[in-house]
Amino acid sequence: MLIELSACNADPALSQQQVNWGDLLKAVQYHGITGLVYDKLLKRNDPDYPPPHFQAAVIQAHRSNALQMIDKCEQVKAVLTSLIELRIKVVVLKGPAVAQVYYPQAPLRYFTDLNLFALSRDKNALDGVLNALGFRLEAGYVEPMPKLIPSVITHHHTRYEHRETKFPVEIHWEELLHDDLVPRDLDGMWRRAVSVNIEGLQTKTLSLEDHLLHLCAHAYHHRFDRLFRLTDLLFIVRDHSDEINWELFVNLVSLEEAQTPVYQSFSLINKLFGVALPDWVLAKLKPDGFRRWWHQHFFTPKVTRPFDMQEEIPFSFKSTPWFQSTFLNLMIMGRRPEKLQYLLRLLLPTPEWLRQRFNLPPERSLWPYYILRLMLPPKLMERLMRNK
User: What does the pLDDT read at residue 240?
Assistant: First the structure.
């Protein structure tokens, strides 16, 4: 029933099922799709099914969320207005852009923050704009580590929060595919960005093909934890398929070696909603059997086990523990040579990297730290640094 309600089909038919409506309401809210369920009930216009108490609860929840969204949209408008006035180039990612471009109606897609893709040269200008609007840098922010190899991301994003409303803004500099690597065609993503109207303002968002790739990578990064990440993809693949340059999309996936997150995203969309890609596209996107085996045995989509609050180990080649994170990433994901180059480079990092990692003054000799960090367990090394 959750899947039926979230699909936002033009057909108002709804199957008659024995449902625990209280649990369903919790699931609808947990998965961030209250707006879609509200729209489905509005199209059906049946006062008796689902039960009136369920319908009333959904309507009330959507109205409450809609009021919150008005405030968030005002924050978005204020930020974008200032950036446009100062001619600072940004590309709007995810929530506001997805709602405006791909959803049947923008208010059906809730969002919690504003994500912007920006150029590193504009960092100071962006900081000035956000500070003037009442935003402050996230508490505990730490300067990014020096790069050991050019393609590995050290500065994922900069997060700001409004002092009064607590509305967050995240500035992404290189992180668009969520695998700790700079996209190979980052410049192309900028060139292909398209105009979009958000809150009456002309700004930019990713092209359809780049947005699809970004959303697949983002949903996979979060292990498909909430259904709204999949409905984002659903509305693109189902309602905008004729607009997608599939050849370009396949080439982009191949260039970025992002077959695993893209293929698994589309497989889940097909399994849940019955929406399939053209056969030739799926054949091109399908990872090799080795990657698929590792994925099947060690990667479980969280959407299939809602309310499981078990802490997930980061799925990153830069994170520990070794097997559950680094090793699995190398087995399942792409661009292995670059990742192995980085891991080898960690054995003998630059002096700048070592000084920042362990907060060492310029006069301190580095040789003991080169040796100790290879001999001592990470937790013991951290304790040693705190007590130095």
Answer: 93
Residue 109 CB: number of other CB atoms within 10 A?
25
Q: Which residues contact 276 (CB under 8 A, 6 or more apart)?
A: 266, 270, 282
- The two structure tokens encoding residue 199: 């809150």
> What was the pLDDT predicted at 300?
83
2-342: CATH number: 3.30.460.40
The residue ranges of every structural domain in the chain are: 2-342, 348-386
Sign of CA dihedral 14, 28, 117, 164: positive
The Cα 210–Cα 192 span in angstroms is 8
Is the entire prediction scored with pTM above 0.85?
yes
Query: With bands split at pLDDT 50, 70 and 90, how would you rate the model's confidence at 176?
Result: very high
CA 10 – CA 7 distance, rounded (Å): 9
Cβ–Cβ < 8 Å for 134, 162: yes
Pair 93, 50: CB distance under 8 Å: no
**pLDDT at residue 80, rounded to an integer:** 97
Q: What is the mean pLDDT of residues 50-64?
A: 95
Structure tokens at 281: 């596209």
**CB neighbourhood size of 370 (10 A):** 14
pLDDT band at 229 (very low <50, low <70, confident <90, very high): very high
Sign of CA dihedral 206, 221, 88, 66: positive
Read off the tokens for 43: 């199209």
Percent composition of the chain: helix, strand, coil (DSSP 3-state, to 5): 55, 10, 35
Cβ–Cβ under 8 Å, residues 332 and 290? no
Nearest alpha carbon to residue 343 among 319, 364, 363: 319
Cα 239 to its chain centre, rounded Å, is 21
